[in-house]
Amino acid sequence: MADYKNNSENADHPPISSETPLDHEYDGIQEFDNPLPGWWVNIFWGTFVFALGYLGYYHLSGRGDSAAQEYASEIAEARELEAKRAMGDKISEESLAQLASNAGLMQDARGIYEARCVQCHKARGEGGIGPNLTDGFWIHGNGTLMDIYGVVNDGVQAKGMPAWGRQLTPIELGKVVAYVGTVRNTNVPGKAPEGHKVAGALSRR
């Protein structure tokens, strides 16, 4: 009988661990001070230190590229390779037309145009200091892509237009020329026509 009673008490109250008990309990449950494993603590502090370094480098110092920036950079590199393939070894009407047909490359070319050409030709090519690029009139040549390439590459010293071929890379030059080709005959209201009207050009709106 005594043995049964002792066994019953032992079942209700398991042996107390040798670890140091804390000075509180909840609902009759005694809490013991069982420290976390060393490997777990090391991993925790390692991730904490890494997070501080990541925050400082990528978000506070401004030196690290975010995932979005790296993605944009990779896309830009891919487009550069695509532009090189489109242009081939020699600039031609066909290679420039191929550039002009690529919406992604023309988006990049728009940025070059805004940085280099807007001051004289305005945002939509309607003309300011320079002529309107959107009507059917051309001062130099007949408005073919190769005509445009020659003007942009060599410049027009008498009109104050720089020779962009000396300042832009061959890819940038090809892209901006192709972009100008995309605004031909869109007839954006702006500067009055200059030069001669090209046969087959759309009438001015």
Explain this structure to me?
- With 205 residues, the protein is mostly helical.
- The protein folds into two domains: 16-60; 70-197, Orthogonal Bundle (Cytochrome Bc1 Complex, Chain D, domain 2), CATH 1.10.760.10.
- It has eight helices and four strands; from the N terminus they run H-E-E-H-H-H-H-H-E-H-H-E.
- The strands form two sheets. A two-stranded antiparallel sheet has the order 1-2. Strands 3-4 form a two-stranded antiparallel ribbon.
- Helix 5 packs across helix 8 (170-182) and helix 7 (145-154) packs across helix 8 (170-182).
- It is rod-shaped and about 100 Å long.
- The N and C termini lie far apart (112 Å).
- The model has no long low-confidence stretch (mean pLDDT 85).
The share of residues in extended strands comes to: 5-15%
User: pLDDT average, as an integer?
Assistant: 85
| CATH level-two architecture of the largest domain | Orthogonal Bundle
Question: Using only CA atoms, what is the Rg?
Answer: 36 Å
Low-confidence stretches: none
Largest sheet: 2 strands, antiparallel
Shape: rod-shaped
The SSE string, one letter per element, is HEEHHHHHEHHE
Q: Which CATH class of the largest domain is shown?
A: Mainly Alpha
* Sequence of strands across the biggest β-sheet: 1-2
